[in-house]
Amino acid sequence: MTEPGGYAANFLREADRDRYFATLLLKPAERAAIQSIYAFSADVASIRDRAREPAAGEIRLQWWGDAIKGEGHGNVRQNPLAAALLDAIAAYRLPAGPLLRLLAARRFDLYQDPMPDLRSFEGYAGETVSVLYQLAAMVLNGGEEVETGDAAGHLGVAHAAVGHLRAFGFNASVGRIFLPLNIFSANGVTDGEILAGHESEGLFAALGQVAELAGEHLDKAEAAIAALPRVLRPAFAPVAMLRGQLSRAAASRQPFASLPDMADWRKLAALQWWSLRKA
């Protein structure tokens, strides 16, 4: 593994442990490329927590955009995450467009506006999560474009919904609402009540509906993944952990508390079992 690749792997292990575990199923060369894509995503996702104000976050997003387009100032490759990503782009002829759209979608993170509706949430999930599955599949396909059908789309929405169900309390505590506000409004819950940490039967009903939605997308994703060639299926390995995480989130009656995650050994076991059966 190259030095930038090693740095990206270590960064990913700390920043996004689930995706790091999922890459352990891959062959070394493909693993390094996909880890670099995931590490880039993790770095961009963390900008909202590192930037003291939106303008600083915008600058960081612009830096990444310039690096991907080859317009970066100075030696962009001094940043090992950027070097690893650029290596992957070159090795597998990855298109810049999806990565740039991911950056554009992440601008939403920098501001306090709530996610307005389900359509907006699904679009956001597609640009920030589904794209990662699509690019990973392209790497496994030797750099050739590949049509994954509904697998990337549905799994991206399910993954985003599960993640934001689990992070609902934290996001509310810092003034953010990533789940569709119209689902809460339909159950008589206002954004002010969410940000104030106010529990109600309407809130539980809304979160339950989001969990059901995530489950429906997960069911469709699993069916679509099963229809793909086996060589592409490892790109979708995180699906193995999502069912258990969704079950825990759906069963919680403490929506503003931190949810306990699955133990690492359970995640690794789930991935190994999924790989034996599906991949």
What does this structure look like?
The protein is 69% helix and 0% strand. It has 15 helices and no strands. The mean pLDDT is 94.
Observed structural traits:
279 residues, mainly alpha, Farnesyl Diphosphate Synthase, 0% strand
Structure summarized in a few sentences:
Helix content is 69%, strand content 0%.
SSE topology:
Layout: H1 3-15, H2 17-23, H3 28-45, H4 47-50, H5 54-69, H6 80-92, H7 96-105, H8 118-140, H9 150-166, H10 168-173, H11 181-186, H12 191-195, H13 201-226, H14 239-251, H15 264-278
Helix pairs in contact: 1-2, 1-3, 1-6, 3-6, 3-8, 5-7, 7-8, 8-9, 9-13, 9-14, 13-14
Structural class of the helix and strand makeup?
A: mainly alpha
Q: Nearest-angstrom radius of gyration? A: 18 Å
Number of strands: 0
CATH third-tier fold name of the largest domain? Farnesyl Diphosphate Synthase
How many domains? The number is 2
Question: What is the H level of CATH, i.e. the homologous superfamily of the largest domain?
Answer: Farnesyl Diphosphate Synthase
Would you list the SSEs in sequence order as H and E? HHHHHHHHHHHHHHH
Backbone shape: globular
The percentage of residues in β strands lies in under 5%
Instruction: Give the number of helices.
Output: 15
CATH architecture verdict of the largest domain: Orthogonal Bundle
Name of the CATH class of the largest domain: Mainly Alpha
* Distance between the ends: 24 Å
In round numbers, the mean pLDDT is 94
Low-confidence stretches: none
